[in-house]
């Protein structure tokens, strides 16, 4: 099932093939997309797919009058993932999500992502259950919308920020198409933003071998709204011969930190 282009899932080409309480399957195209900061190929869209299918498997188990809110996302990337994506050309990653354990106030979904026969990542999403919010709005179901351009920066409505310091910044524009059903930036979009600035922060020196993202761990603290001064920013906390670590956060237009993340990368 493809989604209308005027929804977050439709904009990034996600298609859902199977949806249920025991298993969810969906895909996202990743070939040819580049980090707006570094210009290097990126695995960031896999975070969008993880947020979708991991959240979907948790959402499918909700009770009457319940809704789910993602609180944690963890992505573990295979060492050769970037090579597999590059070799696949117009690569499409397929993700399969299943529930892990029982549920209480929260639920945990586990995911496996692959290109063909090659597993490129595993992931988890933890969600907690709330009463259906009064502000909930339905996503469009009829075909509509158009893509703003083929580049990831256009799809995400982001621009590189001027810092003059050690931080790497991407400014998140206000684009209603990127919002979820409660009017905040979709969790998959914001997770991509954190991966992009985190990866760029550990690759600020282009003279050496590039660091490749190995893991991304995101905590969702509060709704993240784009526009105004909203941005993603990251600083490296460690750069070694073989590994690098960056701390990243998404700051909403109200100036409050909405998400935090840690990215680990290896050469």
UniProtKB/TrEMBL annotation:
Gene3D superfamilies tied to this protein: Hotdog Thioesterase (3.10.129.10)
Superkingdom, taxonomy of origin: Bacteria
Keywords per UniProt: Hydrolase
Residues in Thioesterase domain copies: 183-257
Keyword Hydrolase: yes
CDD domains for this protein: PaaI_thioesterase
InterPro entries: HotDog_dom_sf, PAAI_dom, Thioestr_dom
Sample GO molecular function, one term: acyl-CoA hydrolase activity
Keyword set includes Ribosomal protein: no
Pfam family of the protein (one): 4HBT
Record NCBIfam families: unchar_dom_1
Protein name: Thioesterase superfamily protein [Desulfarculus baarsii DSM 2075]
Lineage: Bacteria, Bacillati, Actinomycetota, Actinomycetes, Mycobacteriales
